[in-house]
Amino acid sequence: MTTPRYCSLTPIEIVEYLCQNSANGYREEEVTAKEQELGISFPAPLRTYLLRAGRECISIRRKEMFPLHAIEREGSYLILGETDQGTIGIQCDAVSESDPEVFIREFFGDWSLLEESITTYLLSEIDRRIRELEANEYLDIDADEDDQKLLVHYFYCQHFIMKELAAKEGDLFGGDIDEIREILQNNTNFVTRASYLIGFCLDRETNLLYCGHLAQDGSIGSLLQVNSQSTRYLYEKVSLERLKVIEALFAILAREVHDPVYAYCIPKRDALPERIYHLANEELHNYILATIGKFLALFDQKKTPWKLGVPVSENFVQCSGLSDLIPLEDLWWGQHLKAAAEPWEPTLARTATGGEPASEQLEPLVKEMIYRLRDYRLLNRYAFLSKKIVTNGRYSKLTADYTNIERFALLSFYRDMLDSVVERLFDCLERRLFTVQVKEKDFVSLCPNPTAEMNNWLRWYRKKELDFLDTGYWE
Q1: H-type helices in 39-170, by residue range?
Q2: Main-chain dihedrals φ then ψ at residue 96, nearest 5 degrees
Q3: Distances from the Cα of 102 to the Cαs of 75, 116, 192, in angstroms?
Q4: What digits encode the pLDDT tens for the residues 360-379?
Q5: In whole angstroms, what is the distance from residue 228 CA to residue 238 CA?
Q6: Which residues, at least 6 apart from 82, have a Cβ–Cβ distance to it below 8 Å?
Q7: Is 0.85 topped by the overall pTM?
């Protein structure tokens, strides 16, 4: 029997596709503990999604579909999370159903039906999160494909080439538009608050994902084509060797910087005062990820004297310098990271005396690393926490009534996180897992033990406005 070319996908299969078959879910013990805390068993679609893809966000602008820490009982509803429109949840009496209805509590406090099932809600939310990034950035691949768009900053996932297709363009992309329409029609889900149906299907031959909006009569109103081969356009402009080295660099940063720092911060997060625990938990992964991104950005600045690369057979293969195509920082945001819980402890002592500044050749880079990766980010958070900056944003609202003890604890948590990132980066340089060239000289040839020197460099170059963190009191 011939395998059909096109097949429908479940919400989990769609997220797996977007995450290169490496979606992050919550651990079984975490989900079970939450069920025991609430005294219920989650409906199968919710529990399965949490376990297999619960930590995925798809869009960098969003948080998880169902943040585990946010699931709680409230009256007759089980709260699942927040959207732009309000709070979503299912009825507590319906948790034993196979796929219960999803309701929304809008800002006036009234509950109303949002979607007919958890599965339908997931499909409509995945569709929304994919499409909100469609026009985020444009990249001309060549003169004949100027309508192709690049999905940048795709949270956890690779960058996706997307193309909005009209039904009449079926012969332009190598697919059978009638066959795609048929599979979408047979596997669509009605969006309760919209006048269209949503359907997903996968082309097994090309591995392209199609996301369609269909009218009630079956006509396609919008057809989005997503290509998971995210860096295809780079292969036309950059050597395969260099792309492999960039991938190796990102793997090192994930394994040797992101994961150890994440593991180190988990017990520190758990020891925070209860009221600020959830904010710290939300920011933990992203804050580490963004700080590593700022490190990569140092080497994509115009006229930078520094080059970042990986030693290959004793030869320096440069990774930076692609900013005309796409910055390393953006590519890094596209990496799908697993936060391994391997134990690690920093060696930073934070002594107040002794030591020398960096050498004349290294000083500009060291000062920039400490400022961009540490002090600037801490000063930004300090400005919000001390109310020197007040906005209508979520961070200002969440921290508005923090006590001085809570502000100090949160800012100290950020400092521990950022110091650990910087230390791990210096450690990687010291072990030559990757290298930085300063005016054609290798970093470790100018300083063979940067990890040991880090404390001295912090003492010399850190911003004095943050010294109060060593006193134990908020100022």
Answers
A1: 44-53, 118-131
A2: -85, -10
A3: 15, 6, 10
A4: 999 999 999 999 999 999 99
A5: 19
A6: 70, 88
A7: no
